[in-house]
Amino acid sequence: MREAVGTAVLRIVGAVTLVGGVAMVVVPRPVLTPLNHTIVVPTCIVALGLVFLLRLPQRLRAMLASRWTGPVLAVLGGGVGAFVGELLHFPYGWDASVVMGLARRIHAGLPVTPGEYHYLSEYPNNLPLLAIDRVAAAAGARLGVTPDSLLIGLNAVALLASIWLAHSVVRRCAGPVPAAAAALLITGFVGLSPWMAVPYTDIFAMPFTIAAVGLAGLAWSNRGARRWWAWGAAVVAGAAAYVIKTTPGVLVVAGVLVILLSLLPSRRRVDDDGPTKPAGRRVLRTLAAAGLTVLAFVGSAAGITTVARHATGADLSRVHTSVSAPIIWWVANGMIEIPAKDYISYGGFSRTMVNAIKGRTQAEMKAYSTQFIKAQWETRGVTGMAAFYANKAVWNFNDGMFSAWGEGGDAKRKPYADTPVAATLMEFNGFHGRYYESRASITEGVWAAVVLVAGFGLLRAPFRRDLLMLALSVLGIGTFILIFQGRSRYLLTFAPVIIALSCAVLPWARAGLVPWTRERGVRGRAQA
């Protein structure tokens, strides 16, 4: 029964992902990024053709099988990210700028203003970012470099680690060729992204997110003490990601669901938990493991948060979280449509919603949010709400640039570097660059192909707990941005996870659609 339920979950996630991928191509929703669908669709078709029909020469496949492939591709990807980030370094705005300015003031010994403390009270989730920025300000002063330069370097290190980890995850699931593809795709989507120039939580949390997923998968491939050590490390990594960026909180839900699968009996005499145990003992062990996972996650997150809060250098007694929005407000904000010039924002940031709760108590905020949600249901009805959330899902996933240049007034900014190389890069990577629309459209076409391959592959892949962890993590972030306020930037932290899932199921996708391209060894990996 365990295998049947696990396989069914993979199929459901695959079907949802495949439908979403088709919608991205057939009925896309306009996004901030200018896209030309006469470029997007052919690019997607070409990418799918390469995925399903291309077969690499044996010599190249042997080279990719080297144990040095992952580290080399990771270093190259990190180098690309550092190069792009440094050349595109620009005077960013919004929260990233507010927190960096505050970190500089604290490091300089200047007093924090009441307005700045009110900001931290409204958005206490940015305290870990403040700690990171303050450490960068202190280190930069010692080294004679700017905090921004250090943090662009930190972005590059985070990218390097994410590529290496994703390569390891995919190699364990599907072999060296899909693993190399994952590394190259992450470099393309993240390393070449304008986000490399912005010191914010999305990329800082990225390596911890893929590490948590990868370590969880590694735990299920081991037994005894090694399993517990790997699982414990996965929990701590997930907690670190959650403290830096809220969205990875879905990882603990995915992990617990994978554990709870052990409540069901296995058809094997010796399964991935070892020799099959009596039902009562199996239930107790499973529930205990799930409970310990939650406790360890909460404890780790609390400990990391405490360290981060003290590292901010701010007077924490003046940070009053009672003025921050309750969870239900984020749900309400996620239900609003905001018409823009060329697109509609589905559940994105709303200044109107922010102003509506200013000066209110927690009880008043909750009452306002509850009434707003009720009004949306009454106005739209069941059919209207279903259409809204369908539009929201496509809108969030329909931007392979992850809303680059979309925060504050970033789209109008120019990089500090005044060199021919920087100017050329801005033509391709700047929001108003001559070739940005074509570059973004090609990126979106490849991104749609990644989503489509993930969906189709999950419809064919066998039950494995590491694949299930990947699938549930992707489903988790998709559900998060569907329920709460969100935009495609929130997917950036999970980009390595989504790409890893797509590449991990690639052999089964190829074997299912084009049988004569069946990869040697797929059968063995399917039974792993």
Number of helices: 23
Using only C-alpha atoms, the radius of gyration works out to 23 Å
Structural class of the helices, strands and pairings? mainly alpha
| Biggest beta sheet attributes | 2 strands, antiparallel
Q: Distance between the terminal alpha carbons, to the nearest Å?
A: 18 Å
Share of helix among residues? 55-70%
What amount of the residues lies in strands? Answer: under 5%
Strand order of the largest sheet: 1-2
Mean pLDDT equals 92
Number of strands: 4
Number of domains: 1
Compressed to H and E, one letter per element, the order equals: HHHHHHHHHHHHHEEHHEEHHHHHHHH
Shape: globular
Low-confidence segments, given as residue ranges, are 523-528
Describe this structure in words.
This protein has 528 residues and is an all-alpha fold. The protein has one domain (2-526). Helix content is 68%, strand content 2%. The chain contains 23 helices and 4 strands. It has helices spanning 2-26, 37-53, 58-64, 69-88, 94-107, 114-122, 127-143, 147-174, 176-191, 201-204, 206-220, 224-244, 250-260, 279-311, 327-333, 351-356, 362-397, 420-429, 436-458, 465-483, 495-504, 506-513, 522-526; strands spanning 270-271, 274-275, 337-339, 344-346. The strands form 2 sheets. It has a two-stranded antiparallel sheet.
Layout of helices and strands:
Elements lengths: L1 H25 L10 H17 L4 H7 L4 H20 L5 H14 L6 H9 L4 H17 L3 H28 L1 H16 L9 H4 L1 H15 L3 H21 L5 H11 L9 E2 L2 E2 L3 H33 L15 H7 L3 E3 L4 E3 L4 H6 L5 H36 L22 H10 L6 H23 L6 H19 L11 H10 L1 H8 L8 H5 L2
Antiparallel strand pairs: 1-2, 3-4
Helix pairs in contact: 1-17, 1-19, 1-20, 2-19, 4-8, 4-9, 5-7, 7-8, 7-14, 8-9, 8-11, 8-21, 9-21, 11-12, 11-20, 12-14, 13-14, 13-20, 15-17, 18-19, 19-21, 19-22, 20-21
